């Protein structure tokens, strides 16, 4: 296996050690970023006179040929992607390929590749997050008036609308988009030129390579630049958070599609059947998303645990940051896109949802609030309504089934006017506080959401 080192070693690595340390299969994910980084470095070497302009032009031409060829012609017996690119370059341009590594190290090279790759993937994830947000807004508008139970502790709590519920997912995505944008801003600084850890004696121009690669500026400290993996941890954390929220949404779709709920029907294109039960329509892909969220969380924990004991300077341990990073980014991007498809194709059973708000005592708070507005201390009102609820349960009726006569019998001090607040629709319409489920409050949220969708990127979390 070809290496970029070994002059001081008397013996080659054992076959098991060769296999254990090889990273080429994983590194191929960012082969293009590695080549583009080398093109920028070769251009700078020529511009600064570290190598001749003719040599620089030859290196750049050879590297661009590698870009055009794709990864298929890179040697497979190399230790890592950096070695593979240099080996292929030597085949194209000859011995001058050995000058490409002047004034750099694999330490700053891999750090640059990772940041360069990460920015592209974050851009992709950011775009898909906004795409999913648009679908939530469309469904929220379509179900602006659709009644459904709102829950706490997974028990019916107060009536809400489906539009209000779906907008809650919109705002979670807005925070994720904002985090992605901030990470892109924070990690957009170049390690290239830091060399192994202490910089280089060659008169390099780090600002030139930084500009060529689209970074904001060089990282000020070479030791920090080659040691830092906080951007990787931040990306893993964002992916874990995105997947966690998608898992919660997927769990809703799984539950809501059961016969017991019957609130939603997922499209055939996103469900599967059973090998022995012909009637089955299994929400497999929502279940897979729910399960794979655990992998994203595990990837973050894996890298955080790996990093916590490392001293400054490059350590080979950090080779283990890339497989989890690639995996989590792939998971997050694919899951956001798949959820967009599922939400777009979801058919909500509005009659079943509305029916579920009746007989569940979810307007009990409205009755307590009504009494409080009449001057009854809320704690006293709470107790009175609790007794009314108990009396209804004993009679096997819901609050909305109370008549003036029955109310007078159960709670003589409660005026019959209280009955008007027990309708689920009236309950929803009354909750017009900012952020509430009332129609005016939801309309305001929709306006805010649409304004954020029109804005470029994610400049605000709300």
General description of the model:
With 462 residues, the chain is mainly alpha-helical. The chain has two domains: 15-102, Fumarase C, Chain B, domain 1; 107-355, Up-down Bundle (Fumarase C, Chain A, domain 2), CATH 1.20.200. The protein has 18 helices and six strands. It has helices at residues 15-21, 24-27, 31-47, 53-69, 81-93, 106-142, 162-187, 206-212, 222-227, 230-256, 284-307, 322-345, 350-355, 364-373, 378-395, 404-410, 424-430, 439-454; strands at residues 147-152, 155-161, 189-190, 217-218, 264-265, 347-348. A hairpin with a 2-residue loop joins strand 1 and strand 2 (155-161). The longest helix has 37 residues, at 106-142. The protein is elongated. The model has no long low-confidence stretch (mean pLDDT 94).
Summarize this structure as a short list of keywords or feature phrases.
462 residues, Fumarase C, Chain B, domain 1, Fumarase C, Chain A, domain 2, two-stranded antiparallel sheet, two-stranded parallel sheet, 18 helices, 6 strands
């Amino acid at each position: 296996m070809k290496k970029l080192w070994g002059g001081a070693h008397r013996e080659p690595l054992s076959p098991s050690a060769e296999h254990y340390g090889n990273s080429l299969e994983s590194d191929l994910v960012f082969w293009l970023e590695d080549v583009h980084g080398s093109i920028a470095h070769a251009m700078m070497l020529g511009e600064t006179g570290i190598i001749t302009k003719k040599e620089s032009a030859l290196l750049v031409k050879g590297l661009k040929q590698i870009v055009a060829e794709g990864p298929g012609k890179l040697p497979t017996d190399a230790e890592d992607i950096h070695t593979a690119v240099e080996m292929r370059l030597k085949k194209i341009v000859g011995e001058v390929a050995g000058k490409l590594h002047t004034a750099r190290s694999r330490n700053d090279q891999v750090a640059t590749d990772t940041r360069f790759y990460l920015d592209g993937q974050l851009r992709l994830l950011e775009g898909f997050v906004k795409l999913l947000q648009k679908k939530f807004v469309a469904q929220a508008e379509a179900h602006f008036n659709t009644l459904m139970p709102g829950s706490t502790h997974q028990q019916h709590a107060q009536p809400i609308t489906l539009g209000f519920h779906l907008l809650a997912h919109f705002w979670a995505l807005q925070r994720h988009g904002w985090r992605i944008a901030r990470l892109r801003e924070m990690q957009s600084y170049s390690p290239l030129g830091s060399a192994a850890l202490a910089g280089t004696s060659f008169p390099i121009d780090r600002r030139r390579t930084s500009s060529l690669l689209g970074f904001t500026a060089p990282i000020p400290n070479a030791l920090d630049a080659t040691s830092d993996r906080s951007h990787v941890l931040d990306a893993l954390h964002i992916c874990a958070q995105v997947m966690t929220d998608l898992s919660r949404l997927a769990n809703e779709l799984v539950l809501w599609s059961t016969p017991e709920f019957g609130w939603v029907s997922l499209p055939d294109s996103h469900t599967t059947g059973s090998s022995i039960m012909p009637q089955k329509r299994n929400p497999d892909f929502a279940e897979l998303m729910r399960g794979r969220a655990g992998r994203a969380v595990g990837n973050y924990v894996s890298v955080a645990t790996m990093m916590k004991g490392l001293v400054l300077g490059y350590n080979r341990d950090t080779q283990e940051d890339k497989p989890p990073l690639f995996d989590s980014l792939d998971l997050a991007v694919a899951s956001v896109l798949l959820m967009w498809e599922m939400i777009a194709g979801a058919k909500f059973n509005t009659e079943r949802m509305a029916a579920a708000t009746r007989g569940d005592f979810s307007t009990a708070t409205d009755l307590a609030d009504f009494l409080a507005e009449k001057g009854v201390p809320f704690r006293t009102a709470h107790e009175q309504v609790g007794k009314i609820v108990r009396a209804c349960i004993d009679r096997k009726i819901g609050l909305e089934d109370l008549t003036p006569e029955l109310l007078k019998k159960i709670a003589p001090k409660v005026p019959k006017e209280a009955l008007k607040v027990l309708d689920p629709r009236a309950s929803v319409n009354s909750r017009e506080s900012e952020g509430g489920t009332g129609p005016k409050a939801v309309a305001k949220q929709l306006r805010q959401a649409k304004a954020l969708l029109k804005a470029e990127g994610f400049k605000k979390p709300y």
